[in-house]
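Fold Annotation — chain and its backbone
Next Lines — sequence and tokenised fold

***
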Amino acid sequence: MKSETALIAAALIALAGYAAAPAPAQSDEPAAGVERPQRSRADRSEQPAHAEHRRGARLGRLPGAHLFRPLPSDQGPLTDEEQQELIDFVRRHAPQMHSSLNRLSNNDPDNFRRYLQKAAPSLRRLRRVFERDPQLGRSIIRHSGNLQRLRRARRAWLESKRDRRTRRDIEDVMRRTLAENVEIEAAVLDDQLRELDWQRAARIEAEFERLASAEADLSGESPALRELIGQLHGAQAKDELEWVEDELWLRCAERMDREVRALQERLARMRADTAQEVDRRMKRLTSPGEPSGHRHGDHKRKRRD
């Protein structure tokens, strides 16, 4: 039973831990040739500061954190009705996990209910991804499933250190699984780049509103950008206000474009160096210690499986 519970826990930890690539380093250089649409200062609405992107796992994580950030609504107790909804969601989209949940429910109903309550925030987030982008949701399921297969394969690889033939067979499986995950990541990144291009103007506008808000948290911004925003709030003359707004708009555009360029470069490297990327991940997978395919702390459950 401990092994069954740990299997489900590891799968949900992988699902909950997805994150995009780190945000590119910020610069205050304006983008050339970017025109800002005419807009009134009175049209602004306050926007909360964006959460910082978390660093991806060493064995690879998918882009798309903007669809998978925790929300307050992800927390809270499970009602009987929502419990059944989440179970049905898992049945439709993650049959293998559903089978494990069924066995846990039949063998240990009390622990099942307690565990499902603990897993509810992750499942709620994943359900939100499927509601907005089913293809990304399916990619997350496939990718996280591969991470679990790699985890099990690594354990078998460590246990067979005296059997070279078995080790080679396991290494072949691990390489194929790693290569599949690299392909999944590239496909998701390609889709994300198309979406970012389509939403470019809206994203620039949202970043402008966030920075221009009187309640914006600017602690992570450069001194030059903070000075510019101070000028925005202190502007008295109309001409001065328009100039500062245009400057801030251009810097927001450059920030969004840098993010896209960084993702484009990442995608190009992945497609050009797939074999090298698999080699790098294979080295991490077969190195001493637990590979970083899951959240820190997951290693504490390793000995209990």
Summary: The longest helix spans residues 164-198. Residues 1-21+63-132 form one domain. The two ends are 9 Å apart (CA to CA). Residues 243 and 266 are 35 Å apart (CA to CA).
